[in-house]
Amino acid sequence: MFGLKREMDQSPAAARVAPFIIFVVLTALQGELGEASRFWMYLLKSLIGVWLIALMWPRVAEMRWQMSWEAVVVGVAVCGMWVGIDGAWTRQDSLWSKLGFTHSPAQPAPPWNPFAFFGAHAPWAWVCVIGRIAASTLVVPHIEETFYRSWFYRYLRRTRFETVPLGEFAWLPFVATAVVFGFAHQEWLAGILCGAAYQWLVIRKQRLGDAMTAHAITNFLLGLWVVGRGAWRFW
Fold it and tell me: Quick check: pTM over 0.90?
């Protein structure tokens, strides 16, 4: 822990990149320690995410919530787009198969549905669902927005990324960041458009907080949609 804090103190890039890498590694471990770990590992990852945000907070000045009408509109619109763009080519597991990069039809991972695993009325299933909605709303936006739009976008513009204003527009970083963000998600097409929308917010408002708010609104509404409609494939 102290080594991480020291590295984050010494390197502005590490303060933005290291928490994201840790979060991604923990995500990759979901399901690797038994089927139940798909659920409890998400909760553990989320708690570690809270600790990572506490480390980032005094070291990443732009990582502050900001509210605006643009953030609300983008957050709601992106959620609608995410559930609306749902075709044969719009998920990675089917995309690569259709493009011939896999020799057999893709077998998607089972949906993240704790009610199917623990039981329809199991208290632990509700803990998992509420924990996921809370974490995707309050934890994920900090870590992802800081990595993609505070560091990655600006680093593609100039390696001394702190000299790049948050509101500076450049085509190559804009497109590349949106594409990388998109393909970090199963719903790659919606993810690209989502990444572009959040980046537009940062550039328009010249700050990070509106994109964090939009991201939180999107994830919260998506969580309600998933649980209310039983659309577990989006998780």
Answer: yes
> Residue holding tokens 């960041």?
177
* Contact present, 24 and 45 (Cβ < 8 Å): no
Distances (CA, A) of 232 to 115, 135, 149, 222, 228: 10, 17, 28, 10, 10
Q: Could you report the per-residue pLDDT of 38-94, keeping only the tens digit for each?
A: 999 999 999 999 999 999 999 999 999 999 999 999 999 999 999 999 877 888 888
Q: Is 15 exposed, middle or buried (0-12, 13-18, 19+ CB in 10 A)?
A: buried
Check residue 146 and report its DSSP letter. Answer: I
Residues 97, 107 contacting (CB under 8 angstroms): no
Tokens (6 digits) for 122: 């199991």
